[in-house]
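Hi F.,

I've been meaning to write this up properly since the lab meeting, where we talked about keeping a consistent format for the predictions we share between groups. The idea is simple: the sequence comes first, exactly as it goes in, then the structure tokens exactly as they come out, then a line or two of notes. No screenshots and no reformatting. I'm using this chain as the first example so we have something concrete to point to.
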Amino acid sequence: MKRASRSPRLIRLTLFCLTSFFALSVLAEPTPENFKVAFIGDLGISSASKKILQLIKADGAQLVLHQGDFDYRDNPAAWEHLVDSVLGHDFPYIASAGNHDAKDWFGSNGYRDRLEKRSRRVQGMACSGDHGVNGVCVYKGMLFITSGVGSIGRGTLPYLQGVLKQSDPFVWKICSWHKQQASYQMGQKKSEVPWDYYRVCRENGAIIAQGHEHSYSRTHTITSFSSHSILNRSNQLRVGPGMSFTFTQGLGGEKLRGQHLCRGKGDCPHWASIYTTDQGAEPAVLFCTFNLGGQENLAECHLKTISNKVIDQFSVVSENNTFGKPLRSPSAVKKARPTSIYFPTEMSDMNDVWVTKDELKECE
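Output, unedited:
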């Protein structure tokens, strides 16, 4: 009897499994003391956008993580010129794709091409995959996963699962995407990121950074995103196995918006901070300083406006890379040792194929 041939789906799944294990090798090493990351989204090209970048430079940030929607003009060259004119041609800049970036994301000199070229110019930055869609970067001992979920690309969930499955050596991990669930923003956006994405990042202790809605909102420590369950109301957040938090940071300068959700007293107890035009919002940057004062698992974050007002301020304690031992204090974390981690180097075959949960198990 003639043996039936494998389907293209199974062949491509096999390729995905293989690339997950035989690919880019990077080192998980301690993050430098007081390493500052600037989180922005929905930038645009305007005087306010330039002030955002000037604030990033003035505050001493060492990396930008941009959660989509670059210039709203489908003009990658104009966006890059704006960034270069303020931050410099080689400034570290990682981003996820937004819906307003889709038209010119791919192709020569598109947004992706420019981001990938920039990452290669940054000493010590190792990136692989499809930047901004199914991409991963390791920089200064931190893991950044950029996803196009809800905006661009397919196969984004298995890619996310595959990377996070190998992320144990990292103290700090960040899932970056543009869109979100409706209940994790303050505007009128609909739900476009499935709960499984939140669950996978939470289970692996990864911070979730979002954009899309042109305002700012930040949760308490979340133990279940779908049920909006929180650990406590402390302003010291915790990330680790089963715990995370998320923020929507869309105050990059493009047409700020008001608050439409959670207006009643006691509504939405998962929210810790809300800043929209109803609260007099102006363009702002969320700064987070990791390995604060030499405590590798401690971070301090604050939202600062272009007029230098601090709107939200909180700390984060990571319980990642503790090998199952509960932390008694931020300084109790075990030092990360250099470890080889293998991530996919090429995910182009995944851009046109969906992989089910049952199929993904074949990789294990």
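Notes:
The chain has a mean pLDDT of 86.
The chain has one domain: 35-363.

If this format works for you, I'll send the rest the same way.

G.
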